[in-house]
């Protein structure tokens, strides 16, 4: 009697249930780790750092040229109720102007403590020269989230280009 044909499967030579379970757990763990990394990179895990919130506020709200859902999300979710005057903001509550060529808004520095932080920003090239200069954003940590609590211009520089 001849043995099994070349390449045919012999009984009892498949993956064992324990091996399959270990592989399944390894794949599942890899997917979880990859998901956490992606969420962290997207800033969707928690509220991120005070710096991330300051940069999102500066770039997504202060530098915005028009109002849309992403601007309202930033204004209503990344700011304290007192910053918004105790209300949810709508596009009718906000005003925007187009940014000219050369407009820059940068987060220069963020000093972060346990429950409060201060971000320093520089605006240059605004179509409204009185808005050029240095700004300070005060942030507070509330329920584990960093929120913008106040914004004030600390130095006007109408010649900033």
What does this structure look like?
The chain is α+β, with helices and mostly antiparallel strands and 161 residues long. It is built from three helices and four strands, in the order αααββββ. It has helices at 17-42, 50-62, 69-77; strands at 104-112, 116-124, 133-142, 145-156. A four-stranded antiparallel sheet has the order 1-2-3-4, with helices on one face. A hairpin with a 2-residue loop joins strand 3 (133-142) and strand 4 (145-156). The longest helix has 26 residues, at 17-42. It is elongated. Mean pLDDT is 85; it is low at 41-46.
Question: Mean of residue pLDDT?
Answer: 85
One letter per element, helices H and strands E, the order comes to HHHEEEE
Biggest beta sheet summary: 4 strands, antiparallel
Assign the structural class, choosing from mainly alpha, mainly beta, alpha/beta, alpha+beta, or little secondary structure. alpha+beta
Q: So how many helices?
A: 3
Q: Count the strands?
A: 4
User: Helix coverage percent of residues?
Assistant: 25-40%
- As a whole number of angstroms, the C-alpha radius of gyration is 26 Å
- The oligomeric state is single chain
How far is the N terminus from the C terminus? Answer: 92 Å
So what's the overall shape?
A: elongated
The portion of residues forming beta strands comes to 15-25%
Order of strands across the widest beta sheet?
Answer: 1-2-3-4
Uncertain segments: 41-46
């Amino acid at each position: 009697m001849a043995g099994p044909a070349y390449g045919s499967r012999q009984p009892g030579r498949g993956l064992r249930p324990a091996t399959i379970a270990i592989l399944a757990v390894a794949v599942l763990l890899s997917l979880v780790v990859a998901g956490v990394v992606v969420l962290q990179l997207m800033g969707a895990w928690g509220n991120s750092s005070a710096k991330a919130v300051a940069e999102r506020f500066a770039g997504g709200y202060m530098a915005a040229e028009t109002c849309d859902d992403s601007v309202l999300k930033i204004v209503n979710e990344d700011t304290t109720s007192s910053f918004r005057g105790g209300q949810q903001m709508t596009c009718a509550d906000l005003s925007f102007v187009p940014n000219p060529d050369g407009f820059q808004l940068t987060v220069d520095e963020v000093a972060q403590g346990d429950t409060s932080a201060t971000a320093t920003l520089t605006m240059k090239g605004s179509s409204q020269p009185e808005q050029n200069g240095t700004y300070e954003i005060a942030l507070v940590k509330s329920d584990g989230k960093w929120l913008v609590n106040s914004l004030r211009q600390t130095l006007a520089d109408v010649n900033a280009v």
